[in-house]
Design goal:
It is built from 17 helices and no strands. By secondary structure, it is mainly alpha-helical. Helix 5 runs parallel beside helix 7. It is elongated and about 70 Å long. The two termini are 38 Å apart.
Length: 280
């Protein structure tokens, strides 16, 4: 029974969830005592129940995280859930989806994702849960097009300001990106005029707002309606909002997104202090 001491110390729900983690391979089984102690400590620090954290740990490893990195990733998901007032399951899902799209691993990579998710919630008309449930529509498309993570989340948060919901915003933004990587005849003409490469290379090293601003301006000069240029009605709103003011509106939001990096940690620390005060 070596390595399973943690399974018999604590509430039944916690034991069951931790036992599930022990089924995820030899490395996870070898660390089960370590996981049990670490999850209990994290529960005390965060105020999240141990069984919920153990379930989160299972989901973290199931999503492809190495057992050696799993607690670090769970800590980032917990910070995001607490500071973002989100469900832990949604936080884990959002982090894992973006990590898989951008090929990020380890605690530092997940911290970057968490900070961007938190900032997008602050800037946009959205929530961590909504972002987690919809970012999968965008992650792979953005990563394949070399769109940086902070630009992607800024774009999504901006579109949520005018869309009916996050699902509509993410669908529209995805369509706007694809409108450039797989252009209509009118879009192709504009891209060539502007000296922008065709295909996925179109976005590499470029600012999304300024790019859509130039496209919007050139379309107007040529007399092409944006509906025709982007080829899909659902892409129009995203393309127009990103290109508003020649991209200046987007750049203001991008600057705010970048200045918010680190705010998640500050917010989490404040909430921990409040929790400690309440317990005292």
């Amino acid at each position: 029974m070596g390595g399973f001491r943690a399974l018999v110390a604590g509430p039944a729900e916690f034991n069951r969830e931790l036992a599930r983690t022990a089924t995820l391979g030899e490395e996870a089984r070898a660390r089960i005592d370590e996981f049990g102690d670490a999850v209990r400590d994290l529960s005390v620090a965060s105020g999240i129940a141990p069984d919920q954290l153990a379930d989160g740990l299972f989901n973290v490893i199931s999503a492809g995280t190495q057992a050696a990195d799993a607690m670090g990733v769970l800590e980032e998901a917990t910070r995001l859930a607490v500071a973002g007032q989100s469900d832990l399951t949604a936080a884990v899902k959002g982090l894992a989806t973006v990590a898989n799209s951008f090929s990020l691993t380890g605690q530092e990579g997940f911290r970057e994702i968490a900070e961007n998710l938190f900032a997008a919630q602050v800037i946009g008309k959205t929530t961590i849960e909504d972002l987690a449930n919809n970012i999968g529509k965008l992650g792979a498309v953005a990563a394949n097009s070399s769109i940086p993570m902070d630009q992607l989340f800024t774009a999504l948060s901006e579109v949520t300001q005018v869309a009916n919901n996050t699902e509509e915003a993410s669908t529209g933004l995805r369509a706007a990106i694809i409108a450039i990587t797989k252009p209509t005849a009118e879009m192709k003409e504009i891209l060539i005029d502007l000296g922008i490469p065709l295909g996925d290379a179109a976005f590499k090293g470029r600012n999304l707002g300024e790019m859509f601003g130039r496209i919007r301006r050139r379309a107007k000069e040529l007399g092409h309606p944006m509906e025709i240029v982007v080829g899909q009605v659902r892409a129009v709103t995203a393309a127009l909002i990103l290109g508003e003011e020649g991209g200046d509106r987007y750049n203001r939001a991008l600057d705010k997104q970048r200045r918010l990096m680190g705010e998640l940690s500050i917010s989490y620390d404040v909430m921990q202090q409040e929790l400690a005060t309440t317990l005292d």
